[in-house]
Amino acid sequence: MRVLLIGANGYLGRYVADRLLADPAVQLTALGRGDDADVRFDLATGSPGALTRFLDAVHPGVVINCAGATRGGARELTRHNTVAVATICESLRRSGCGARLVQLGCAAEYGPSQPGSSTAEDAVPRPGGPYGVSKLAATELVLGSGLDAVVLRIFSPVGPGTPAGSPLGRLAEAMRRAMQAGDGELKLSGLGVQRDFVDVRDVARAVHAASLSAAQGVVNIGTGRAVRLRDAAAVLARVAGYGGALHELDVPHGGPQQTHGHPGRPAGLATIGSPRSEATAEQMAAAAPQPYPYPDGCGAWQQADVRTARDRLGWRPRINLEESLADIWMEAACRI
């Protein structure tokens, strides 16, 4: 089976590439913007005609799109997440290769969920920010393309290589700094959020399974279990051997922020749910009460209903969160 992988150098794409290369039946070609791609092509600016000619020459049986942007303004997100997918769909329609398309979507397309609920694929998407909007638009393009296609909505991927800007990446970095500085306490913000964390290697297995299946439409990829960030922080502290105290600095649903411990000591302060990671406890206490910011637009709770992945892909997650966190910490510890 000849597979064209787009975005092989990204966080998810690297593990998808490893998984495919381990399958002796797969002939893999990587397409991307980097110099180490087999074929250099920028989906955000390249023409459908040029990509069509390449598809006709290579004639893949499956095209997997792991490319996209998670940060930036609405224009940049639209260009990399929506326009790029429009180019792929149009090229596949024009091409005679008849390839199956596996598109990687994300849980941000759903937006906030009711606490305690599991989000199934038939939920009405209500993305809470430009990233989710751009990814939802891409999903709609794929579903309306008439192609043999499946969209995997990935919930919160974790594991080795977790981006430093992600909640668990920031958590590991904050703990690394605290241990390096010898801080006996770590003040953290945003720990009330609950997410469905799925290991990136399990995501790669799901992509492989989807490429071999006949499943179409949307399929959720998660664990089916939401975990509070404060619980993940406690596990990470145990894995890291951090014996200091963890203090939570905010109330997730708004209201005055509270500090448990010593509010006059700013050492080790980190905001997990927001990219704003440096502030003093006094500054936070002085801020006017406001709703807690969830940068991914997903609110306080997200949990996947993963029955479709089990039934249609034969896929279940294998790697537990403690193992994922141990691998995240191993990378962070190398920087101490």
List descriptors.
17% strand, three-stranded parallel β-sheet, globular, seven-stranded parallel β-sheet, 14 strands, 37% helix
Low-confidence stretches: 252-269, 273-292
Number of helices: 10
Overall pLDDT: 88
Share of helix, binned: 25-40%
Give the H and E element order.
Answer: EHEEHEHEHEEHEEEHEEHEEHHH
- Which outline best applies? globular
* Beta-strand percent range: 15-25%
* Largest sheet, strands/sense/barrel: 7 strands, parallel
Counting helices, strands and paired strands, the structural category is alpha/beta
Strand order of the largest sheet: 3-2-1-4-5-6-11
What does this structure look like?
- The structure is a single chain.
- With 336 residues, this protein is of the alpha/beta class.
- Helices cover 37% and strands 17% of the residues.
- The chain has helices at residues 11-21, 48-58, 74-94, 130-143, 167-181, 200-212, 229-240, 281-286, 307-313, 321-333, and strands at residues 2-6, 27-32, 39-40, 62-65, 100-106, 149-154, 156-158, 185-189, 194-195, 197-199, 217-221, 227-228, 245-248, 270-271.
Could you provide a short overview of the structure?
With 336 residues, the chain is α/β, with parallel strands linked by helices. It contains 10 helices and 14 strands.
Topology:
Elements: E1 2-6, H1 11-21, E2 27-32, E3 39-40, H2 48-58, E4 62-65, H3 74-94, E5 100-106, H4 130-143, E6 149-154, E7 156-158, H5 167-181, E8 185-189, E9 194-195, E10 197-199, H6 200-212, E11 217-221, E12 227-228, H7 229-240, E13 245-248, E14 270-271, H8 281-286, H9 307-313, H10 321-333
